[in-house]
């Protein structure tokens, strides 16, 4: 099981670093942008998202603060899935792969998040 988590962590880290850096340097050609994505590019908001992708991806690759990396890229993974499900079905398979890799890593680090999701409050 550990090697599956390690491979998932490295693959997701590579995906986020490569595609995050592509947002800044455009070394992978992208097809015509959907109007929603064009709005993100025109507003400059895409640079915030891409910076978070690179940061979270590097944390996964280096294996530093993986739970924090999961918190950083979690909303991005969900937004990628929703974007491809509702707006632009091109490359929907990539979003599913991202989600599966994310869930594998999340399950491995679930004990870290369990206490945050408990319904009890500490006694004073």
Describe this structure in words.
Helices cover 76% and strands 0% of the residues. It has 124 residues and is an all-alpha fold. The longest helix has 24 residues, at 2-25. The N and C termini lie far apart (40 Å).
The N- and C-terminal alpha carbons lie at a distance of 40 Å
Query: How much is the average pLDDT?
Result: 94
Radius of gyration: 16 Å
Percent of residues in beta strands: under 5%
Kindly state the number of beta strands: 0
Helical proportion, percent range: over 70%
Query: What's the overall geometry?
Result: globular
Helix and strand composition category: mainly alpha
Tally of helical runs: 6
This entry's quaternary arrangement is: single chain
């Amino acid at each position: 099981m550990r090697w599956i988590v390690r491979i998932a962590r490295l693959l997701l880290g590579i995906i986020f670093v490569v595609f995050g850096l592509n947002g800044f340097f455009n070394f992978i050609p992208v097809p015509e942008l959907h109007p929603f994505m064009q709005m993100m590019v025109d507003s400059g908001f895409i640079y915030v998202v891409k910076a978070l992708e690179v940061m979270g991806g590097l944390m996964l690759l280096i294996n530093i603060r993986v739970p924090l990396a999961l918190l950083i890229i979690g909303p991005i993974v969900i937004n990628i899935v929703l974007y491809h499900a509702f707006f632009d079905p091109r490359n929907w398979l990539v979003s599913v792969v991202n989600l599966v890799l994310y869930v594998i890593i999340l399950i491995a680090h679930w004990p870290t998040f369990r206490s945050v999701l408990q319904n009890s409050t500490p006694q004073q």
